[in-house]
Amino acid sequence: MNRAKAEAWLNALVNLETGVGVPSGVDRRKSHPTLDRMHALLELLGSPQLEYPTIQITGTNGKTSTARMTSQLLTASGLSVGTYTSPHLERVNERITWRGDPISDSEFAEIVSHVALVEEHITERVSYFEAITAGAFDFFAEVAVEVAVVEVGLGGTWDATNVIEAEVAVITNIGIDHAEYLGGTRQEIASQKSGIVKPGSMLVLGETDSSLLSIFSSREPRSIVIRDRDFGVQGNSLAVGGRVLNLYTPKSRYDDVFLALHGEHQADNAAIALCAAESYIGAPLSADVVAEVFGTIASPGRLEIVGHQPLLLLDGAHNLAGASALLGALDEEFAVGDRTLLIGLLEGKDPGEMLTALGAKSAAHIVFTRPPSPRGSDPEVLARVARELGVPADAIDVIEQPEKALERALAVTTPDGQVVVTGSLYLVGAIRAELNT
């Protein structure tokens, strides 16, 4: 199997992320949550997930950024680290990295071939996400990583990644998102996400709402460290190209650390990642390692600057918390000049709430488009909602194709203004790929 055939095999599977192959009215995540397929698949692969320790990360926002930072801190500390994140922006290879580099096409084809070969012997077909997750675990065993950092796809308890027994469990935060699967209250969502906390694990808890603490402590972790109590951020100042932070952990302090990411919220992600890495190693990290990693870290598709005159930013904010964090960062760091929003949402999001959180009424112009996903919302509907919110009709464009929508957004924005592409990681990935061709 070459890469093209491997990707074709994957794309023929039910994909719960995009909705491809899911019969109308049927969703296995909601109607039949189970880890049986994953356990059966991994057993046929030789249970590779048992061959290395893991750090598992869930939360409503910040999972991918936290996973990347944690992995790079451990790599810079001398460990061989595998990282699994989702979804990808441009190529599926991005989901599986080793020592910071995405797997090659030949490695990707090989692991998918392994999964496809054994998948024939289980009674129910696995999903796209289950197959890639199993392939990632198989790859990490093959290259003998010393630790794997694993981002949860959705929730925790029933996520395909939750076949591991993580030494360190990380919860970034708890907000309302994917309510159709996880529940409509923060307590219900916390209960689902707490499923990654195993008895005897170390819990790094980024959520600070004390009313949720008992949900996590009832999972009987060996230890719990809580943001703003045991670790956190004591200084968070705007700097050219990022932030300057003062961070503390149960083991040390790190002052005047430059973080090469935009957005005040990334400081919390940095503190969580630092505490997760220290929890795993069991000792403070070198100040030089922390300075090197945070000073050079990149998080594609998260307040990423990809062009100038006008300034072009990509941010995959796809829920209310992410949209609010994006707007706060834009107003703090990029307030000069008119702002054009290029927005595409997925179905299931409340368009009025999302547009309000993104600051649609204060935008100079908005271009609505459809993300390249079967779940992409109709941009005409979004435009109608924007008009109902008070956005002038002459400040709105509707262009179905993301690439042409970008052309329009750039054309209506003055050189000293900014274009912000947001609302969906699928849209951000499509624009990013277009810019890289």
Tags for this model:
2 domains, 16 helices, 8-stranded mixed β-sheet, Protein-Tyrosine Phosphatase, Chain A, 6-stranded mixed β-sheet, single chain, UDP-N-acetylmuramoyl-L-alanine:D-glutamate ligase, alpha/beta, 437 residues
Description of the structure:
This protein is an alpha/beta fold and 437 residues long. It folds into 2 domains: 3-296, Mur-like, catalytic domain (UDP-N-acetylmuramoyl-L-alanine:D-glutamate ligase); 304-435, Protein-Tyrosine Phosphatase, Chain A (Alpha-Beta Complex), CATH 3.90.190. The chain contains 16 helices and 17 strands. The chain starts with a helix and ends with a helix. The model has no long low-confidence stretch (mean pLDDT 94).
Write a compact overview of the structure shown.
By secondary structure, this protein is α/β, with parallel strands linked by helices. It has helices spanning 3-11, 28-31, 36-44, 63-76, 105-119, 128-142, 179-182, 186-193, 213-217, 266-281, 287-296, 320-333, 351-357, 379-388, 402-411, 425-435; strands at 54-58, 81-84, 96-98, 101-102, 147-151, 168-171, 202-205, 223-226, 232-239, 242-248, 253-259, 304-307, 311-315, 339-343, 365-368, 396-398, 418-422. The chain folds into two domains: 3-296, Mur-like, catalytic domain (UDP-N-acetylmuramoyl-L-alanine:D-glutamate ligase), CATH 3.40.1190; 304-435, Alpha-Beta Complex (Protein-Tyrosine Phosphatase, Chain A), CATH 3.90.190.
Residue-averaged pLDDT, rounded?
94
Strand order of the largest sheet: 4-3-2-5-1-6-7-8
The CATH topology label of the largest domain is UDP-N-acetylmuramoyl-L-alanine:D-glutamate ligase
Give the CATH class of the largest domain: Alpha Beta
The named CATH superfamily of the largest domain: Mur-like, catalytic domain
Number of separate structural domains: 2
Q: Supply the number of helical segments.
A: 16
Judging from the principal axes of the Cα atoms, what is the shape?
Answer: globular
Given the helix and strand composition, which structural class is it?
Answer: alpha/beta
CATH architecture of the largest domain: 3-Layer(aba) Sandwich
Instruction: Report helical residue fraction.
Output: 25-40%
- Termini distance? 26 Å
Radius of gyration (Å): 21 Å
Number of strands: 17
Largest sheet: 8 strands, mixed
Give the low-pLDDT segments: none
Strand content: 15-25%
